[in-house]
Amino acid sequence: MDFPQVFSDGESYIFVLFDQFACTAMQFFVDTADLDEIREANDMGVLDGVTTNPSLVKDEGNVDFHEHVFKICEIVDGDVSAEVTATDFDGMMEEAHQLHQIHGNVVVKIPLIKDGIKALRALDEEGIETNCTLCFSPTQALLAAKAGADYISPFLGRIDDISSDGMGLIEEIVQIYDNYAFDTDILAASIRHPTHVKRAALAGADVATMPFETLLNLLDHPLTDRGLERFLDDWQDYKEARKAEAGLA
Ligand code: G3P
User: Fold this and answer.
1) Which string of DSSP letters, residue by residue, matches 122-162?
2) Which of 3, 67, 174, 206 could form a disulfide with 185 if both were Cys (CB 3.0 to 4.6 A apart)?
3) Please, what are the domains in the chain?
4) 109 is an active site residue
């Protein structure tokens, strides 16, 4: 095991912590069940995982749910959330076991209801990874963390949609989890635009899951486009001038 290194700069001591305690970068997940989008996002080299939900699976039309989840897991080397649709404890556990069997990347998504909390606890004891979904309040997030959820998914866009403060919820959960050193990862969900991603990162969310289009929108800046156009024009002028000089020589 490595130990922290200690350096002296002459006036004070500087501690370099273990790697495992260092901050990891915010993870980017795509919130989609569209295989083409997942492949394209994965090809960008910045994709850490995928979240799906029953509505996103419905958008894919006539696909077999379990086969589809397997295909997603084969594309992405990271966590892939797949949701149970039962609302009672036994039903959720049965579906969770089936989903867990599909692939090692599967994280079972459990709704934030009473039997869901019970299922989170039971699945944690079995070592099955979970993502607790449909979180809209800090106390729901506290319950999920106490039950052993691996991820909590606060839906910030849907909170904003009803003129409330989605980002405030993320900030409160960050504070509560820090207060008690919960290791549940905060997965900012229902993201609608790059500002949501920026503010979730500033608040310290561990993961942002976003539609593929929003991932692409993170690239957008008119000054980047204008700057690139000018560089390419100037490069063309430079090459033509060189060619002309070579012709004269
Ligand atoms: O996957 C859960 C969440 O991200 C849903 O987002 O856009 O349907 O509110 P949205």
Assistant:
1) HHHHHT--EEEEEE-SHHHHHHHHHTT-SEEEEBHHHHHHT
2) 206
3) 23-224 (3.20.20.70)
4) yes
